[in-house]
């Protein structure tokens, strides 16, 4: 029995050492395989239960191969930007199908030699496609299934993961949203002197546009007003201060052809009260503009401007509230100075075939300038709510009292309310009679019929240079208090009469106040997004004119206008040129215009016992009961290793150690054969006894 036991023990040794030799041979042949994990062979005894204390029954040996999946391989540099490696624990999630279906299992690998296939998917040399979480441009993970709204980063599923495809990245463009300007504005300039800075910016479609920033010296020392007309191809430009108040707003209508007879344009305070102007053949009457008789487009545009100025008193307050655009005789420019918003409707401004004859289409609104920056303070009274007897209004320190029995227009400070028209006339005459500053010209105080209904209901008071005054309406009953020109109630009963400038300098030539911060652009004719900070629209352009008290932007020295620098972000359309992959697995697309866009995030799958995963052909593994379930993690977070771009993980095989082990195995195998041959000889001797 023991001789046969010895024989079989030797056979088990041959089997075990053969297994070890097989592991060594696999290790040596995979010494250059990316991400390969070496297999070591351990041995355990096979013990036969001993039935006698004086007799030994041989058992044998068993081999126990173990792949050392958790051993880190050496990272080797690569020239490919899509080669990635894992530094630390974890695996890439892969699939053999570019678009995994229900029957396509997800596997795990550390072989990161990925290249683009003919469809743009990242596939490694073994034919497996790396999976990633899609992200939005900000790098936030989103579901791969567009029918879902909430991502789940703990589940491996085609609803949340997809094969990374670089062909579908496409091009990109970035709209400008910051502009920094440095220049010196001459301190010796007289009031009214203007300088400009031309700035190129990009819209959301990557088109290059130009805008001009105009600086005009104020009548108040060390102060400059800032203006930006709508760039060609836009409808409205609006400047805002640091608090979001409108500093200035302008509109633009660029005619490309003469409108057809019968077509119309609406211009006014709002859609409900806007005046309709009609283009006609023959002699015009009323609010009509002639388009035949050999009229040129420039003549038609000029006639329209003149008609609006004569027909609508809201445009008589401010001489350039509507004007032919300087230098462009076929365009109309609207400049809102505080009277009230300007509504323009071009939906019926068409040619004979129904096509648009302006670059701008539809309707737009030029916003009302905030009273702090307005050249005019509008007091719009309600004819249905006359001030009560004894009500008072204070203008520049002079108090005017309303009385129904007061004679009209006698120049004192008592204002008649016998009729609404008499009250308006008496108030204008009394202010001019009792205020020498406002009486300097006949236009600093004037009454107007802003809604063109035949009743002068609005009194405007023009800002006086170097003078800041208030209008106090607290002495009036609430219903009779005047409103702004567009019938918006003033926020306070104290209404300032002053115009703050866009930029104010200290006596040392350094800026002390910036009242201009953001630029809003609306109505791009090329279809680009509005720049208005609205949802699903572009951002406003934020200006950086420097730091208050520092000479790092705009300054006011000397006698020359000197532009120093202009910098802005944004870019034209650019095509995909490559990727970067961060240590956190974030895949960022690079474009030839310098822009970047985050597109995917590569997850890392970790296991409790990776050495018990089942190895499959192609240098991949599957989870088993002994390995535990996967856990998806962000690279570099918790137990997950970091992802290294342009590097590959080398095989963990040490060829020197393998050759040494091979010698040991060879000798052990030979020794096992000697056991068999010796046991055979002993059996032969036993057989010879019978002879």
TrEMBL record:
Keywords on record: Bacterial flagellum, Cell projection, Cilium, Flagellum
Record localization: Bacterial flagellum basal body
Any single biological process term in GO: bacterial-type flagellum-dependent swarming motility
GO cellular component terms, semicolon-separated: bacterial-type flagellum basal body; bacterial-type flagellum hook; cytosol
Flagellar basal-body/hook protein C-terminal domain span: 645-688
Entries under Gene3D superfamilies matching the protein: Flagellar hook protein FlgE
Flagellar basal body rod protein N-terminal domain segment(s): 10-37
Alphabetical list of InterPro entries matching this protein: Falgellar_hook_FlgE_sf, Flag_bb_rod_N, Flagellar_FlgE/F/G, Flg_bb/hook_C_dom, FlgE/F/G-like, LlgE_F_G-like_D1
Domain of life: Bacteria
Function summary: A flexible structure which links the flagellar filament to the drive apparatus in the basal body.
Family, per entry: Belongs to the flagella basal body rod proteins family.
Annotated protein name in UniProt: Flagellar hook protein FlgE
Species name: Varunaivibrio sulfuroxidans
